[in-house]
Design goal:
With about 575 residues, this protein is α+β, with helices and mostly antiparallel strands. It is built from 15 helices and 15 strands. Strand 10 and strand 11 form a beta hairpin. Helix 1 packs parallel to helix 10, helix 11 runs parallel beside helix 13 and helix 12 runs antiparallel to helix 13. It starts with 16 loop residues before the first helix and ends in a 22-residue tail after the last helix.
């Protein structure tokens, strides 16, 4: 007689349910410990729950570039603004397009909120322009056009340093914007439109051309400009084309406003590869290090080569953002692939300038359409409402389990608690790790997940009850029901996860919070059912309370309408006595 084939052992580890429980308990303890160790004991909240600011920007096309507002440029602008804001360390800053010409920027309430708002509003293109003239902020009498051979005059500026590129190994010195108050000034070579007339000059003094056509108007604008006036300061240089000289305002190293005449832009923000704030190891001062693209390095080498041969202030180049001079270091040697800007920087000002240089070049200009601020009080009310809704939903599920499943509800409630602990700790850790923020749609996703998790328990419990109705005892019923329930749970959770993944990929903004939370809790449902609910059910089936079929266990065979097991009569075959028959 052939020996019976060995089948697979009971699925789910009938003999070793303690291992699975120990594994998930260790994971829960580790996640909880990591949460407390990181110092983030609560999930980070989004703007609608914690408060913050929503800024709506409207794209504007420059004259002659009416087709510039297109999908490509808008997506490029979104990426740059997003990197600029998040470069400040602002968590959960959200930047997205709305319609054809609007960008929505959501800045959560936090320590860098105001700083981020200022940089979001700074949306114009970034240019490097040579400094032609610099003076104090007050209006001045127009200076007479200097004759050939005159030399420029400017006040001294504090010195700083700029490192040469890899090509130029020697150190170079630079200085921030000088505070020059002299009214007499020469028309620089960058403004020259006509051949330089011959003139007698002192030995060793570089020739300075006479005024070309159109220079007188720029001189008048410069003389009348008052950079202390907010209105004048806000319009100075805003409408200038990159190929034209312009006037502009900017602050010097001691925080005083100055006015400039700037030449045409020779390098723009797109030529900067990256910039960062760093500490100069030589003197412990904050500096800004810049790296240029290959094309930008050539342009920067050309302009610094020319500027290094000029006298102050014409050896300075101005970093101009939104028509305002944010820095104007001087150059004393040729630079190319990389450079340093140094001066009286604080950590904050160095980081601001580095962030502007890295992410300042936008393909479009924008104006603020609206600014909406959600107070922390309003966000707190919405969070309270969401938590109340979640508590009501959880309470209804627990009441249903207690009434319908009685003792089995203990397993379901413990499983819900395990799922809640895993969800809470993971959300708390994901905040600092990947910038996840719990917003109102994410809370809704967590509430929906309560039903998904409870559904998995119900599927398994009903399979076990079906086995008991067929006349099996509890322990075999628990193990025979698991493979069938497992397939149903996996298919159900796969559909839920697939829906969450598609929703996350095709949507933007806060809806992604709902999709992310739904997908996360769906995955955790699989983990909890396999490593907690099933092993716990196996252990409970060994207890007298459940195994005896108590009426309060939820597994009473009589209440379930169990049928007595069908027993087939045994067929008795007599042993053959005749050897021939054998």
């Amino acid at each position: 007689m052939a020996a019976p084939k060995k089948g697979r052992g009971p699925s789910g580890g009938q003999g070793r349910p303690g291992r699975a429980l120990a594994l998930i308990l260790i994971a829960m303890v580790a996640l909880t410990g990591g949460m407390f160790w990181s110092g983030h004991v609560t999930p980070r909240l989004g703007i609608d729950l914690a408060g913050g600011t929503t800024i709506t920007l409207k794209a504007k096309s420059e004259p002659g570039q009416e087709n510039a507002v297109n999908e490509t440029n808008m997506n490029t602008a979104v990426g740059i603004i997003d990197r600029r804001v998040n470069g400040l360390g602002v968590s959960e800053a959200e930047v997205q397009t709305q319609g054809r010409e609007h960008i929505i920027v959501n800045i959560p309430k936090g320590t860098n909120e105001q700083q981020a708002r200022e940089q979001v509003g700074t949306t114009a293109q970034l240019y490097f322009r040579p400094v032609l003239t610099v003076a104090g902020s007050e209006p001045t009498a127009p200076a007479p056009t200097p004759s050939a051979g005159s030399t420029p005059s400017a006040g001294a500026s504090p010195s700083a340093s700029a490192s040469a590129s890899a090509k130029d190994k020697g150190a170079s010195s630079a200085s921030p914007a000088a505070s020059a108050t002299t009214q007499g000034r020469a028309v620089p070579e960058a403004l020259k439109k006509a051949p330089t007339p011959k003139a007698t000059q002192s030995p060793g003094t570089p020739p300075v051309p006479s005024a070309p056509p159109g220079t007188a108007k720029l001189e008048q604008q410069f003389a009348a400009l008052n950079c202390n006036d907010v209105k004048q300061r806000g319009t100075a240089g805003k409408s200038a084309k990159p190929t034209e000289p312009t006037v502009a305002c900017g602050k010097n190293t001691i925080g005083q406003w100055e006015k400039y005449i700037l030449g045409p832009a020779e390098v723009d923000g797109k030529d900067v590869d990256k910039a960062r704030a760093a500490i100069d190891q030589r003197n412990g001062q904050w500096i800004v290090q810049m790296d240029f693209t290959e094309g930008g390095a050539k342009k920067f080498s050309k302009i610094t080569s020319r500027l290094s041969q000029q006298q102050s202030p014409q050896n300075q180049f101005a970093i101009v953002l939104d028509g305002e001079v944010v820095s104007a270091p001087s150059v004393q040697t040729t630079l190319s692939a990389s450079a340093e800007i140094s001066g009286s920087f604080t950590q904050e000002s160095a980081q601001d300038l580095g962030n502007i240089l890295s992410y300042g070049a936008l393909p479009l200009t924008f104006q603020e359409d609206s600014v909406t601020t959600v107070t922390a009080a309003l966000g707190g009310e919405q969070l309270k409402a969401g938590l109340i809704a979640g508590a009501i939903g959880l309470a209804l599920v627990v009441i249903y389990l207690l009434v319908y499943y009685r003792g089995l509800s203990l397993i379901a409630i413990l499983s819900l608690i395990a799922s809640a602990i895993l969800t809470y700790t993971i959300m708390s850790l994901l905040g600092p790790a990947i910038g996840f923020a719990l917003n109102l749609p994410a809370v809704c996703g967590a509430i929906v997940a309560i039903g998904i998790t409870a559904d998995s328990f119900i599927v398994y419990f009903e399979r076990v009850r079906d086995e008991i109705r067929e006349g099996r005892t509890l322990r075999p019923a628990v193990e025979r029901a698991w493979p069938r329930a497992r397939r149903t749970i996996l298919v159900s959770d796969f559909v839920s996860f697939l829906a969450a993944a598609v929703l996350f990929l095709v949507t933007v903004g806060k809806v992604q919070g709902f999709a992310f939370t739904l997908g996360l809790t769906t995955l955790l449902d699989v983990v909890v059912v396999f490593l907690f609910t099933k092993p716990l059910m196996t252990l409970m089936a060994r207890t007298k309370f459940f195994a005896s079929g108590s009426s309060w266990s939820g597994l009473d065979p009589k209440r379930l309408g169990a049928q007595p097991p069908l027993r087939r009569p045994r067929r008795v075959t007599a042993a053959p006595t005749d050897p021939k028959e054998a």
